[in-house]
Amino acid sequence: MGGEPLDLSGVWHGQFSYAHGQQPASFVASLNERDGLFDGDTEEVGAVGEAAGHTLTATLQGRRTGLQLTFLKLYDGAFDGYDAVQYEGEVSDDGSEILGRWTIAGAASGDFMMIRASSAPLAALRAAEATV
């Protein structure tokens, strides 16, 4: 990142997948980082149950140490079955991409990817490659 400290602040476009072959879900996250701690919010369209087709919002709280990060996603509680999700991942060297794994304790897990909004065309390309 040109010698500047890594900072996750900004808008990210993401996608998370499920272990059972269900279609991946897309989301948009806005992050604010300060001294390795960050918070933010996400918005996505629900895929299952009574939330299907509805906009879901959640807050994020996390920590970045070097290129490693962990965060907790807490849904707003508007729909049953959407609660807390733990994320662990790694930021790319240039700070433009995050890859990792999400887990719902005792229930489900899968992979996720986040790409900075300024890199959104790259995100579309990678998503298309992943479905081939």
How would the blueprint of this fold be written?
Elements: E1 10-16, E2 25-34, E3 37-45, E4 55-65, E5 68-75, E6 84-91, E7 97-104, E8 108-116, H1 120-130
Antiparallel strand pairs: 1-2, 1-8, 2-3, 3-4, 4-5, 5-6, 6-7, 7-8
Short description:
This protein has 132 residues and is mainly beta. The protein contains one helix and eight strands; from the N terminus they run ββββββββα.
Unreliable stretches: none
Count of alpha/pi helices: 1
- The dominant shape is globular
**Considering the protein shown, what is the CATH homologous superfamily?**
Quinohemoprotein amine dehydrogenase alpha subunit, domain 2
Order of helices and strands: EEEEEEEEH
N→C terminal distance: 31 Å
CATH topology: Lipocalin
Overview of the molecule:
- This protein has an eight-stranded antiparallel barrel.
- It has 132 residues and is mostly beta strands.
- It has one helix at residues 120-130, and strands at 10-16, 25-34, 37-45, 55-65, 68-75, 84-91, 97-104, 108-116.
- The model has no long low-confidence stretch (mean pLDDT 87).
- The chain has one domain (10-130): Quinohemoprotein amine dehydrogenase alpha subunit, domain 2 (Lipocalin, Beta Barrel).
